[in-house]
Amino acid sequence: MYEMLNKRLSNVEEILIRKFNQYAKEVGAKHILTLGEPNFDTPEVMKQSAIKALEDGKTSYGTSYGNVDFRESIKAFEKRVNEVDYDISEIMITQGSTEGLTAALLAMLNPDDEVIILSPTYPLYKNVVALAGAKIVSIDISKNGFEVSRKMLEAAVTQKTKAIIITSPNNPTGTILSDESLFAVYEVVKEHNFFVISDEVYNQLVYTDRRLGFSKFQDIRDYIIVCQSLSKPYAMTGWRLGYMLAPLWFMKEVMKIHQYMVVAVNTFIQDGGVTALEYDVTPMVESYRMRRDYVVSRLLEMGLEFPNPEGAFYVLVSIEKYGIKSWDFCERLVLEEGVALVPGICFDADSHIRVSYCVDMSTLEMGLDGLQRFISKL
Prior knowledge:
Elements: H1 16-26, E1 31-32, H2 44-55, H3 68-81, E2 91-94, H4 96-108, E3 114-119, H5 124-131, E4 135-140, H6 150-156, E5 161-167, H7 179-192, E6 195-199, E7 224-229, E8 242-245, H8 248-262, H9 267-276, H10 282-301, E9 314-318, H11 326-337, E10 339-340, E11 342-343, E12 352-356, H12 361-376
Parallel strand pairs: 1-10, 3-4, 3-5, 5-6, 6-7
Antiparallel strand pairs: 2-8, 7-8, 9-12, 11-12
């Protein structure tokens, strides 16, 4: 029967992060540091905004672009925080950044087009590209301090290059691309004319002085697609609420994909989004910073190597010296210590494991205790 399916599905993997997370639960893991699921509840003011919207009868179809008041809030937010000015016609509400990224890639890709990614990377990108029949060109930036240079980019660009995807802060490393790296991307895009998809889901979870993202290069705005999510900074993962910023000419075309995927995002949750963009996430960021510092200190005590996480809530830890593949490492860690981490193979980094520290301190402490016991036996 499989021959009746889309042949491209054979090149698409299920989400390995969730597959391993489910395995860990099934075998009885006690300390789970896998998913990027904030342990905070959604702040009450956001919930009350959605509740009021329901009580006010906002239960009908909304426009495919999204509620006007939410798009106006996004316009003001982007101007205040990222110093860019988008008209509301260039803003589309999406079901999280995942739908936005998928719609953007499907709208721009033809078979055999090429998309550049900076590895280690989040697995969604390569799988959506594969579904579109296009190809991934991976640049391993782990050997370059998790930065990218113009020379590295030029070596990856061909006549088939359609886009590059950048994520900063990065999942799985927590690193932030420097201004020099962003400028290198800008120079190459300006010369060769291809899209930049900027996945900015963690851009409010930053522990250093915050720098402007790629959208600051407004002289090439016709090539810039920004995908954003409210999931991580506002602890709204279950709401599935995000947005896309894109030039009007592209937005009119990607809207066709968006309409047939979801028609329109739930109307009443968008009122919660309006409230969220006015909410100060500093206390949550400071909590993550405290956990980041604790995790880093523990990992250093264990003699482990990793890039310093400047944002998001992950650490990508090298296990190369143990000579064990990441899936085997994490599987043994679950079975022997009841601790679940994510195998680096999920991010094209098989000599690494990812620690998520958006869990409570007790889980962190016991999880890292188990990791320390485990590696002491290797």
